[in-house]
Amino acid sequence: MNLRLCLTVFLGALFGQFPGFADAPDAGDWRHAELRRFEVKEANQGVAVDAEFFYAIDNHAIGKYRKSTGERVGGWDGGKEGPIRHLNAGVVLGGKLFCAHSNFPSMPEKSSVEIWDTATMQPTGQHVFDTPPGSLTWAVRRGEEWFACFAHYKTTSNPARSVVVKFDAQWQQLASWKFPAALIQRFAGNSSSGGAFGPGGQLFVTGHDARELYVLDVPANGGELVWRATIPISAAGQAFAWDEKEAGVLYSIERKTREVIVSRISAGAGAGGVAKASANFETIFDGKSFTGWEHKGNWVIEDGAFFRKAKGGNLTYTVKPVPDDFELHFEWKVSKGCNSGVYYRPGQYEYQVLDNVSSPYGENPRQAAASLFFCMAPSKDATRALGEWNEGRVMCKGTVIQHWLNGEKVIDFDYTDRKWAKEIELLRIRGANLNARGGKLWLQDHGADVWFRNIRLRTIPAEEKLERSEFTPMPIPPAALEKENARVQGMLKAKAKK
After folding, report:
1. From the centroid of its chain, how far is CA 397?
2. Max Cα separation, the chain?
3. Does position 454 have pLDDT exceeding 90, yes or no?
4. Helices 421-430 and 478-497 sit at what angle, rounded to 10 degrees?
5. What is the pLDDT of residue 143?
6. Is residue 153 within 8 Å of 189, Cβ to Cβ?
7. Residue 92 pairs with which residues in a beta bridge?
8. How many angstroms separate the CA atoms of 388 and 383, rounded?
């Protein structure tokens, strides 16, 4: 680790001891490694990158450099008295460089997207916002839509007014999000200087000065961005860009030394919140409303979590079925003796949610927390103490099922493997149809108080392969096995009478 990064980590830990910094999520399993630096005179506001070149951005000038050598091969300068006064972040799309531009600190606020041809480095057009909700600092495209940040600063306004807005291809507003209050405080009177969608499909943003990269989830229909992680990096804020040619490679700047920094951002396989380069998670619960969910009035929202408060039935996600191949992340917390679960495929595919200590179900590992209930026991009990939040994760692709608990993979099996025939027969007896897909996601009300939050879902692409590992389920104690056998016989007799 270089001296700059050591200092970054030290300061990050130090700041965490003071008010305003304690609420910040840490890096989790995200890692940063600096690869190289280039001295670049225009490295003052940000950097953009394409397959062969990077583009260093100053207030009214842009330099074009080879990624391989750092050689300057072109540029543009509009002059201090020209119409371009305050460029910010840039992104390269189809041979065009799109740069955010504003008149900050002048008032009233004016903002535009300025466009250059990367081959000639000459301006080719612009989009001017009629009534911008702030000073534009970055604009990036995702599919056919644009996401843009309009900033506010304490010198002229209130940073809490900073907003991320989604536009269609014709720049018609579709939705907007505000930053979490804790992150606004982290901006220290400034706002977000850079932003782009990166590994895992999540939104990554920087502030103005801190040597940190913030990982955010974007709820589907607007509201408030969800702050997931804080990654210490070498660059002191400002705008950045992801390398389109090499996944996870980040270009950023150090404005004090006028350098472009090339780094690698990665997420290891051990974290419950691990993100893959091909992932595209959707937050399906915004922590504030029941939009997209149905229940009978017995669930409430408490401190950003679904809370089963009274008897009345399950909580079901109705917007769309669970994809055939998917990855689901969620956090759960149980009351004493609680038995609940997360159902994710038609029939009886249940990720068990349980107080392993006080619930009678806990005596049988096939019914314990993170089990595929009444089918497959986890490899270990990885639950946290009663009253603490647990991190759950399910990955299903084809006939492979994986369950995770608190960052540990505790189930990994293919239900067509004959060595699991006895376990799969239990699932069939319980009522599962192994060929069925397209079920609704639902959270179980089994008569006890339970909480769920931070629920995210993605489709696993066809080309993505699951990481497999050897798996040995916990053994079933003799007394628990005897009770299970008796229950199975009762189920079979009930089926025979139908």
Report:
1. 20
2. 89
3. no
4. 50
5. 81
6. yes
7. 97
8. 9
Per-residue CA distances from 498 to 291, 487, 491, 494, 495 (Å): 39, 17, 11, 7, 5
Q: Which domains does the chain have, with CATH numbers?
A: 3-272 (2.40.128.630), 283-497 (2.60.120.560)
Partners of 116 in beta bridges = 97, 123
Cβ contact 208:193 at 8 Å: yes
**pLDDT reading at 217 higher than 60:** yes
Coil, helix or strand at residue 82? coil
Share of the chain above pLDDT 70, in %: 93
- Count of positions (residues) in the chain: 498
- Residue 181, sorted as left (phi over 0), alpha (psi -120 to 50) or beta, turns out to be alpha
Residues 6 or more apart whose Cβ sits within 8 Å of residue 45: 57, 58, 59, 86, 87, 88, 89, 193, 238, 239, 253, 255
Give one word for 112, left, alpha or beta, with left for phi > 0 and alpha for psi -120 to 50: beta
DSSP designation for 70: -
pLDDT of residue 280: 64
* Terminal C-alpha separation, the chain: 67
Whether residue 251 contacts residue 36, with contact meaning beta carbons closer than 8 Å, is answered with no
CA distance 331 to 452: 6
Query: Which pLDDT tens digit goes with each residue over 220-246?
Result: 778 999 999 999 999 999 999 999 777
Using alpha carbons only, give the angle 37, 38, 39 rounded to the nearest 5 degrees.
Answer: 125
The label of the residue with tokens 């740069």 reads: 99
pLDDT, one tens digit per residue, over 44-65 is 999 999 989 999 999 999 999 9
What's the pLDDT score for residue 268? 52
Q: Which amino acid is at 174?
A: L
